[in-house]
Each structure stands twice: as C-alpha cells, then as structure tokens.
Amino acid sequence: MARISSYTFSSLLVFFTLVAISSAQLSSTFYSSSCPNALSTIKSAVNAAINKEKRMAASLLRLHFHDCFHCLQGCDGSVLLDDNSTFTGEKTAGPNLNSIRGFDVIDNIKTQVESVCNQTVSCADILAVAARDSVVALGGPSYQVQLGRRDARTASQAAANNSIPAPTFNFSRLVSNFASQGLTMQDLVLLSGAHTLGFARCTTFRDRLYNESCTLDTSLASSLKSICPLQSGNGDNNLSPLDGTPAKFDTVYYDRLLQRKGLLHSDQQLYKGDGSGSDGFVKFYSKHTGAFWEDFGGAMLRMGALRPLTGSNGEIRMDCRKVN
Ligand code: HEM
Ligand SMILES: *[C@@H]1O[C@H](CO)[C@@H](O)[C@H](O)[C@H]1NC(C)=O
Ligand SMILES: *[C@@H]1O[C@H](CO)[C@@H](O)[C@H](O)[C@H]1NC(C)=O
Ligand SMILES: *[C@@H]1O[C@H](CO)[C@@H](O)[C@H](O)[C@H]1NC(C)=O
Ligand SMILES: *[C@@H]1O[C@H](CO)[C@@H](O)[C@H](O)[C@H]1NC(C)=O
Ligand SMILES: *[C@@H]1O[C@H](CO)[C@@H](O)[C@H](O)[C@H]1NC(C)=O
C-alpha cells in the first residue's frame, strides 16, 4: 500500500507542480533580486510572534488555508481585508467570524517587510511564508514556498461561506469540498494534519459530545464536557486543543484519530476504523513521520498554488487590511 500510494502521490505531485509552474508562474526565487531580505524578515517576525504566544503558529497556518480555500478567488490576501461601511469581506464570513486570528501579527510583518522593500512583497505571499515558518517553528518540516502571488482588490463573503469546509461535514462532503479545489483525498488527510497545532472553540465540537458519543472516546468525551457544557451560550468560546500536543508539529493528531479521539466531527470522519474512506492514509501517516513530513510540504504547495493572481493582475497592497 505504501508503494502504491507513494507512486500515485508522486504522479500527482509532478502533475500539480507542472500546472502550478505553467499556469500560475509562481517561483521560489521570485523576490531574490527585488527583495532579497523578504524571507528572513518574515521569518524573524513570525518567530518573535510565536515566542510570545505559541498558538500564533496555528493561527497563521490557518489564515493561509482560509485565504486559499475560496471558490472564486484563491491565495490572494482577500481574507485580510477589513469590512467597512461600503465593503463586506471574508473576515465576517461564517467560518471566520470570531475564529480566525493573527491579523495584528500580519500587520506587523507587513510593516517590517515594507521597511526593507517598499511595495514589493504581497500580503498573499506573506501569508504563505508565515504558514511555512510557523510549521517550522513548532518542529515541523520545512519546504520551499512558491512566491509571486499578488493581492486581490476584491473579496467575496458568499464564496468564503460556501468554500471553507465546516466541522459538521461528513467524509464524502470533505472529499468533494477538497476535490472542488483540485485536491485529493490524500491531500485532505495531509492538510488536516495541520490540526496537530492549535485549538478549537466549544461551539465547534459541542454536538459531538452530546449527540455522537459512540464515535468519540468516552474518557475524552467526559473531560471535554467539563469545559463545553450542553447548554448553548455556556462556555461557547472555551478552547480545547485539537490534539494532545497543540504546540508541537507531530503525528499525534493521526494517533488520536486511531483512538477515536479526534476533536472535531470532521477530524474523526477521516478515520472510521473499518478500513473505509481514508482510514489507510491516517494509519500510514500515524506510523510514518518521515512520510508525513515530506508529503505535508507537497500538499501545502498545492494548496498555496490555488488560483493566485500573478503578473499584472491584482496589486501589491500597501496595507494588508485595505485595497490601495
Ligand atoms: C478539512 C477540513 C477542515 C475543517 C472542517 C476545519 C475546521 C476547523 C475548526 C472548526 C477549527 C476551530 C475554529 C474555532 O475554534 O473557531 C479549526 C482550527 C484550525 N484549523 Fe482547521 N479545518 C479544516 C482543515 C484545515 C486545514 C487544511 C488547515 C491548514 C492547512 C487547518 C488549520 C487549522 C489550525 C492550525 C487550527 C487551529 C487555529 C488556532 O488555534 O488558532 N485546518 N479548523
Ligand atoms: C455568510 O454566512 C454568515 C453566517 O454564517 C451570514 O451571516 C452571512 O450573511 C453570509 N454572507 C453571505 C454574503 O451570504
Ligand atoms: C512606496 O512606493 C510608493 C509607490 O510605489 C510611493 O507612493 C510611496 O511614497 C513609497 N513609500 C515610501 C515610504 O517610500
Ligand atoms: C454526507 O452529507 C451529505 C450532505 O449533508 C448527505 O447528502 C450525504 O447523504 C451524507 N453522506 C453520508 C454517507 O452520510
Ligand atoms: C443534538 O441533536 C438534536 C437533533 O438533531 C438537536 O436538536 C440538538 O440541538 C443537538 N444537541 C446538541 C448539544 O448539539
Ligand atoms: C472600504 O474597504 C475597501 C476595501 O478594502 C476600500 O476599497 C475602501 O476604500 C474602504 N472604504 C472606506 C470608507 O474606508
């Protein structure tokens, strides 16, 4: 199984890499001459933010995901645009409101990047690089980020509502949600591995504690009930780690799925224990850290290449919160 899946995976990788290179024109050396200090500036600002608060790594990784998963636009910094009286953007979309975070950190990174290279590095690229640096900072794999995305001048709240998967989704809905982005079931398992970092609010897993206990380990369910009471409105924003080690990029997320300890309904959908669906991939990555390390980077590149604006499309925003 390992041989077959790694062969299939390599073919897909080659295919998507070619697509990314030929249509998106992203390149890992995009800023080599225009802003040689861009990557080191981003990295040190990301590390400083994570040193202050470990969870920021998770929050920055998730921001890049929510920027990219959009049925109309792709990784184009649209998630960073603030709402105002004449503009409604993605920050207040259902999956994002009171949920995504890290905007002040992105502002701070942008300010530092602007001070080394005025209006050269896009907010969309900052998100992609900050996601990678966050993974590395908490002990995960490094990979070369493709660059050259430009920033959107528009955003669509409706599209954000419709594109970002919900924690209530079942397996087939998760698979088709990823397929609509050109991503495979294996990518779904790999990218969900990002839930090795960070936290989720009670509102996102309450149903699972009181309505679904047979798919959730009983001892975990009872300890979660103490932080997430039945009655809606009580403790809605209380946090639980998504795996047992929320500040360490590791394979514990997959281990816990094997033990029926996935926090979100959508997490546990990836492993049902009957050999169906993506059970095989979850088992495989739980046991093969090296393969997860290598394959996670590939999946992040495919996600990061979704419909970027390149060339003279879009703009290089001066302030990530608003169009120029
Ligand atoms: C497969 C479908 C996915 C679903 C249904 C999903 C859902 C969620 C939910 C409900 C939360 C908690 C939000 C809250 O408490 O308000 C969360 C957190 C998180 N998600 Fe996902 N997610 C998915 C895929 C991904 C992917 C692909 C990534 C990144 C590559 C990702 C990265 C994260 C991270 C790092 C956190 C923790 C954020 C923090 O602590 O600030 N997720 N996700
Ligand atoms: C997006 O969803 C939120 C709540 O889930 C809703 O309040 C908002 O009106 C939706 N926006 C659009 C444009 O459909
Ligand atoms: C940055 O460049 C823009 C034009 O690209 C210019 O309008 C602005 O004044 C410059 N800012 C600084 C601080 O140099
Ligand atoms: C998954 O959810 C979709 C949409 O809610 C539903 O139509 C479908 O029947 C569900 N599939 C399974 C296997 O439960
Ligand atoms: C459990 O499911 C029922 C029926 O679908 C629903 O009415 C109820 O609100 C759910 N309870 C929780 C705590 O989610
Ligand atoms: C509202 O936000 C949009 C998008 O960033 C921007 O184009 C517009 O100038 C903003 N309007 C005000 C009044 O700030």
From TrEMBL:
Source domain of life: Eukaryota
Binding site for Ca(2+) 1: 67, 74, 76, 78, 90
Described function: Removal of H(2)O(2), oxidation of toxic reductants, biosynthesis and degradation of lignin, suberization, auxin catabolism, response to environmental stresses such as wounding, pathogen attack and oxidative stress.
InterPro entries to which the protein is assigned, alphabetical: Haem_peroxidase, Haem_peroxidase_sf, Peroxidase_pln, Peroxidases_AS, Peroxidases_heam-ligand_BS, Secretory_peroxidase
PANTHER family recorded: PEROXIDASE 72-RELATED, PEROXIDASE RIP1
GO molecular function: heme binding; lactoperoxidase activity; metal ion binding
Cellular component aspect of the GO annotation: extracellular region
Catalytic-site annotation from UniProt: 66 (proton acceptor)
Binding-site list for Ca(2+) 2: 196, 243, 245, 250
Organism: Carex littledalei
Comment on bound cofactor: Binds 2 calcium ions per subunit. Binds 1 heme b (iron(II)-protoporphyrin IX) group per subunit.
BP GO annotations: hydrogen peroxide catabolic process; response to oxidative stress
Record-linked SUPFAM superfamilies: Heme-dependent peroxidases
Cofactor (UniProt): Ca(2+); heme b
Record carries keyword Disulfide bond: yes
Primary location: secreted
Site (Transition state stabilizer): 62
Subcellular location: Secreted
Chain residues that bind heme b: 195
EC number: 1.11.1.7
Residue span(s) of domain Plant heme peroxidase family profile: 25-324
Protein name from the UniProt record: Peroxidase
Keywords annotated in UniProt: Calcium, Disulfide bond, Glycoprotein, Heme, Hydrogen peroxide, Iron, Metal-binding, Oxidoreductase, Peroxidase, Secreted, Signal
Leader peptide range in chain numbering: 1-24
Catalytic function, reaction form: 2 a phenolic donor + H2O2 = 2 a phenolic radical donor + 2 H2O
UniProt binding sites for substrate: 165
Disulfide bonds: 35-117, 68-75, 123-320, 202-228
